[in-house]
Amino acid sequence: MPSHYDKSKNCRVGTMDEAQFYAEAGAESGAYFKALLTAWSKSGSTLKRGAGGVGVRGEGKEVGFCFVAPAFRAKTDRIELGCSQLKKQIGEAKCGALVESLRAAAGDQCKGQSMISIMDPGSLPAAKQKALTKAFTGLL
Fold first, then answer.
1. Alpha-carbon Rg for the chain in angstroms
2. How far apart are CA 111 and CA 29, in angstroms?
């Protein structure tokens, strides 16, 4: 069933397939998401489609470390990761280095402390997008 908002559950339900994912993302972020998801797949990550976007799991890991989502309601296209869980998976030092790299690449578009959101990544200049992808794929 395609992903849709269920008022009775007050959330999205179903599964967002690739066509719906890119149809709901902005053109710039959609192009960037495609490149990023391809890079993650090539690095051995597993992509898991859900109701609101795509979860990314490292090679051999059951727990996701990142979530990529198109705009929905008041939220823009974004990449999200929870630092608390990530520290448990990769260690505090590696997580800290990743967050520093993400902040350097995304600048003001990198929001949050324990939950990091990179807003509208497709609007970043090409060099910043490349640095963002390098930071993420270097993690795996």
1. 14
2. 17
Q: Which domain holds residue 12?
A: 4-139
Q: Residue 136: what are its φ and ψ, rounded to 5°?
A: -70, -45
The rounded distance, in Å, linking the Cα atoms of 89 and 100 is 17
Supply the CATH number for residue 54's domain. 3.90.1150
Q: What is the chain's percent helix, strand, coil content, to nearest 5? A: 45, 25, 25
pLDDT of residue 133: 92
Answer yes or no: are the C-beta atoms of 19 and 2 closer than 8 Å: no
* CB burial of residue 86 (10 Å; 0-12, 13-18, 19+): buried
126-139 helix and 27-42 helix, angle to the nearest 10 degrees: 30
- The total of structural domains in the chain comes to 1
The pTM of the full predicted model, rounded to 2 decimals, is 0.88
**Cα distance between residue 64 and residue 7, in whole Å:** 27
Could you report the per-residue pLDDT of 75-88, keeping only the tens digit for each?
Answer: 899 999 988 888 88
- Which residues sit opposite 110 in a β-bridge? 118
